[in-house]
Amino acid sequence: MSAFELDPQLAADTHAVGDLGLSRVLLMDDVRFPWLILVPRRAGMRELIDLPRAEQHVLLDEIERCATALRNMDKPDKLNVAALGNVVAQLHVHVIARTRQDAAWPRPVWGIGARIAYDDSALQRRLSSLRAALLMQ
Fold this sequence. Notes:
The protein is an alpha+beta fold. It has helices at residues 8-13, 53-74, 120-133, and strands at 14-19, 23-28, 35-40, 78-82, 93-98. The protein has one domain (8-101, 112-129): HIT-like (HIT family, subunit A, 2-Layer Sandwich).
C-alpha cells in the first residue's frame, strides 16, 4: 500500500494545524471563513465509505471535535460539514463556521469572491488558538 500524501491543491490552499488520531487538520487560507479541512491520513481514499467502518467512526469523532472547537471559538450561526470531492478527489471533510454576516451567507462558500489570505501574525494566532482548542499543544 502506498504512503499517505496530501493532495497538492489542498496543500496549496491551506495551512497545517496538526494531526489528530486519523486525520490531518488543515486551516483554509481564507480569513473570511473559519474553515477547517480534515484529511484522513490513508492513501487512496476518495469516499467516506472507503474507510474501514471503525475509521469512519473515528473520523466522525474528529469532525465533532473540530466543529466544537469552531463553535466555541467563533460562535457561528451555523456549522457546515461537507465531503464533496468534486474538485479534489482525495477524501477530505470541510468544517466551516458560518455567520449571517459572512461574505457568502446563505449560499455555499465555494466560488464566492476572492480568497483573502491570513497575514503572518493573524495566521500564527489562529493556528495557536486552534491547536489549543483541539488539544494539539
